[in-house]
Amino acid sequence: MPFDKTTATLLGKSIPQPDSLEKAVGETLFSDDIRLPGMLWGLALRSPFANARIRRLDVSKAKALPGVRAVLTARDIPGVNRRGNMPGNRDDQPVLVEDRTRAVGDPIALVAADSSETAKEAISAITVDYEQLAPVEDPLVSLEPDAPLVDEEGNVIGDLGYTRGDTEKGFSMASAIVEETYRTQFAEHAYLEPEAGVAWTDPGDVLHIRCGTQWVENFRHIARILGVSHNHVRIESPLVGGGFGGKIFMTIEPLLALLAKATGRPVRMALTREESILSSTKRHPYILRYKMGADADGRLTALLADLVGDVGAYSDASPVIAWYSIGFLGGHYRCKNVQVHSRFVLTNNPSGTAMRGVGSAQITFALEGTMDSLAEKLGMDPFEFRKRNHLSKGESLSTGQPLKNAVFFSETWEAADKALDRALLRNSEEIPKLSPKVLRARGHASNMTGYGRRHGHLSQAQVSVQFDGSAVVSVGVADIGSGQRLGCQQVAAEVLGLPMDKVTLSTSDSQLNPIAGMTAGSRTFLNAAGPVQRAAEPIAKALKEAAASLLEARIDDIILADGKAFVKGSPSVNVPHAQLVPAAAAAGTSLTQLGTLKIEEDLYPGEETAHNAGWLDYTFGGMAVEVAVDPQTGQVMLLGLGISHDVGTAVNPQIVVGQCEGGVVQGMGLALTEDCCVKRGKAEAHDFSTYLIPTSLDIPSIEVAILESGEGEGPFGARGIGEPPHNITPAAIASAVSRAIGVRVTSLPITPEMVLTALRTGEWPH
Amino acid sequence: MRGFDFLSPKSLIAALRAIDGKAPTCKLLAGGTNVIPTLRDGTLKPRFVVDLGGIKALNYIREKQGWIQIGALTTIRDLLNSPLIKKKGSLLWEATHIFAGPLVRNRATVGGNLADASPAADTAVPLLALGARVKLRSLKGQRTVPLNRFFAGYQRTVIKPGEIVTEVTFPVPARGRKQSYYKLGRRNAMAISVVSVAVLLQMKGKICTDTAIALGAVAPTPLRVEKAEGILRGKKVDLELVKHCAQAAAKSVKPIDDIRASADYRRTLCEVLVHRMICQSLGLEDAD
After folding, report:
1. Which chain B residues are within 8 Å of A690, Cβ to Cβ?
2. Which of B171, B167, B165, B143 is nearest to B64 (CA)?
3. Does position A1 have pLDDT exceeding 50, yes or no?
4. Predicted ipTM?
5. Is residue A172 part of a domain?
6. Buried b (16+ CB within 10 A) or exposed e, B208-242
């Protein structure tokens, strides 16, 4: 039964997140707030060196300290000393270092003690004799044939690419060619909640880990590390204080598990911000070379993209990001002659992982910059140039994958530009105060971000209705702050025709809830609310059947809304859910339903030659931003910003706006201030006074224009919106700054110093 | 955080007695916004931490015989909220306005900010330009040190063992003084300055009779650039002279490369900002 949007009562409503107020006033219990009786304090000894051999490790003094309950090294791991990875990907990261550190922050030993002071004392009582080796710091050096091996299996963990047409011929047909190399930085996820959690073993010998995560399914990796079967590990995630991709793969979970198992006591760990930044995964720095050619009419004739990604010390999510990047590199423009190549290379730098956009932010920055340069060389307006080249619905990406849903390219570009006008109006008191000498310019970008897996996706959720008509949703997805729980609740309430408070949720428990995948990739509404919708539908149908019989009407005319059923147009004659549920049960309907979202492989022509790259669907967006650059100091000021995305259906517009604004602010950080400043493998910027995320005073006037094509793959036609606003922001800001200073910005972050150098030399410094 | 004895005297005399003979194993704590991070990361391992926060008598802002007197434990928020500072010490007020963020401003004190002696100390730059003096007390007595002789090197001061900063004082600027302050940071709040500049000019018509130019984050200590100041003093100020002065200012700094900016950028910005601040305070049309 297709859902009738015209009778929807909650769809499109900006229902606030139920936990917003409690979070704002500090009442929410996060992982760090949990205290258990008899709890020990866990701490890790981490390597200060990016590349070192451990000649000797002596923990005897630490073990002898009173109050120390366990000191563990690699030798004490009962199962496999590997953190685990996705099937087929290199499983190269030990839980505890055996004899060689590959990164700063590698855990070498673990301590559990009665107090945090004793734990610290024990850590300092451990002696390690390091033989320092030169770290491999540059992925280009790591690529060289005689480079020192970071991993025995070789330094290149991903070498992917595809060719379409003949680029050589394409360039020969071009009347303008641009070739540029772009570089991006190591970026920290900077979730406000650092890694923390507790672990304990219950009387049934199940090890519980309560720790903020984006993926409760990591229990399988824990089981392998402990040498126990999967049913003996249970991961429960409290509400998560931000993840952005940094909490998909395990953070401290294996460390907690080992200590709880070894001591038989509850153990707590909580990282300081410094330890968190020094030891956690990062956004990959990309070195991206784009060469593009267009004919005199402004039509692309050839596109060549070459990407080198700095994997850091361990594979982690890099093979996945490498694969995702292949799907973006060819861009969302029409071009017959395309050659795309990507290599992901190990170094002794911090490991790269997923971070909001899985490579799209870096690629969009380079792709859109090159498009701007090419437009400039052709003497064309950048929008006009793009309009001649962007793909439309029904056309195929260069991989060969057809775009089966709406492509709002011009629509979002123009809506963003108009939104910028509104944003500038809101700033109309400040702008006239600017010195007449500032360099002002408007810049734009467009973005295509994928969401949803095409291959073998399976996620499940359970919905139960109670006799009084209320409902419980059970779904194994973690809420990382962007409305994952609310989305499931709102969809269930809509389908069942219940008020929001009559739907409660059980989420993010790997043993109690059906597994619904990771909270990631702009696909969680699809992954989690999708099966919720499917579970709720048969119950709604049974309720409607019961109502149809009681009201003597056709089932198609029955509306479920606000806890009642009535015939369309006659809401005053109604039957409450409390009466319908027992009737439906008596008629033999199960009051608990499992909903399954299974996405079958949908192959496109030539898929195998493009490494099967591509998503289920894409979200398209445009951004316009106006900057003022101080020509003497190089400072960049954002005067206003307009953003527009086609979200298919805005199920909850306030959540969409929140994702857009949050994505912009995080993107601003990537564009202007954030940089881990990695030297000799160490993040020199490892606290919030040096790793500069934007503050509330840095946020410009932002206007969001939501467009709804209705053509998305999520519930009610929604498209993913978690990552796209972030992915587009650095590109748009760089476009505006480039225009203001007359020099193409080719690296991030755009520091005042680099802007000043560019103004003085006419070249962007690298 | 390592273990230490925490002392919390309620009067200045009790505090002086508490620290007597304990240096160098003793660390004074005012607002704690600088001390606590260094205790946490283990840079500082004192045996005693003496919390001065309980000495209410050292929190005041007043005007006396042509001088503004600020108790050392006055918080940055108190300065920001003071109509007296806003009116008669507006250079300082501007610095408190962009000092870190509200949480830090609620705790950080002017005495602590100076005693910490960071090259980027936000209150030091305007106070240097205002010709501030620092009062120090010990069990033996009291002395007053001009702020431009208070800093002894990177994070070092002339405070002797047993001494506590009790007051910062500066003369009320004469009428008609021209002034300008600017802090260049990488963001609009919670920023450690890359370069900061305070300029104060006494004018008699177009003749500059007195000058003070102070810079932050461009040398081991916040500093006055006396050579540059001398270029303006007693002269008719025009753009040519301003340029000359700004160049001299840039020549007398010793910036370093760090995570926020390079030494070259800082030196360049000294020239740009000194030039800009002088022009701004005098209403000169900046030709650049």
Report:
1. 259-260
2. B171
3. no
4. 0.96
5. no
6. bebbbbbbbbbbbbbbbbeebbebbeebebeeeeb
Give per-residue pLDDT as tens, B174-196. 888 999 999 999 999 999 999 99
**What pLDDT digit, counting tens, does each position of A323-338 carry?**
999 999 999 999 999 9
Last residue of a domain, one of A549, A577, A599: A599
Residue B261: which of A690, A694, A753 has the nearest Cβ? Answer: A753
Which residues of chain B neighbour A633 with C-beta distances below 8 Å? 184, 269, 272-273
User: Quick check: is A624 in a domain?
Assistant: yes
Nearest to A697 among B189, B272, B288 (CB): B189
A533/A1 Cα distance (integer angstroms): 12
SS3 state at A623: strand
Identify the CATH number of the domain in which residue A83 sits: 3.90.1170.50
- A123/A258 same-domain check: yes
Name the region of A87 (left: φ>0; alpha: ψ -120 to 50; beta: rest): beta
With bands split at pLDDT 50, 70 and 90, how would you rate the model's confidence at B56? Answer: very high
| Burial readout A313-344 (b: 16 or more C-beta within 10 A, e: otherwise) | bbbbbbbbbbbbbbbbbbbbbbbbbbbbbbbb
Say yes or no: A73 and A198 in one domain: yes
Quote the crossing angle between the two packed helices A577-586 and A530-551, to the nearest 10°: 90
For chain B, domains (ranges, CATH) are 5-54 (3.30.43.10), 57-171 (3.30.465.10), 178-282 (3.30.390.50)
Q: Alpha-carbon distance A43 to A120, whole Å?
A: 7
Q: Tell me if A477 is assigned to some domain.
A: yes
pLDDT confidence bin for A5, thresholds 50/70/90: confident
A688 CB neighbours in chain B (<8 A) are 190
Chain B residues inside the 8 Å CB shell of A117: 3
| Structural domain that includes position A368 | 282-453+605-761
Query: What's A167-178 look like in SS3?
Result: HHHHHHCCCEEE
**Same-domain pairing of A638 and A588:** no
- Same structural domain for residues A486 and A582? yes
Provide the shortest C-alpha distance from residue B252 to chain A (in Å).
Answer: 19
Statement to judge: residues A82 and A120 lie in one domain: yes
Instruction: Clarify whether residues A348 and A230 are in a common domain.
Output: no
Do A653 and A718 sit in the same domain of this protein? Answer: yes
SS (H, E, C) A54-114: EEEEECHHHHHCCCEEEEECHHHCCCCCCCCCCCCCCCCCCCCCCCEECCCCCEEEEEEEC
A164 in any annotated domain? no
> Whole-model pTM?
0.97
B36, B265, B277, B286: best to mutate for the A interface, most A CBs within 10 A: B265
A517-559: per-residue pLDDT in tens?
999 999 999 999 999 999 999 999 999 999 999 999 999 999 9
Residue where one domain finishes, among candidates A569, A599, A629: A599
Count of domains forming chain A? 3
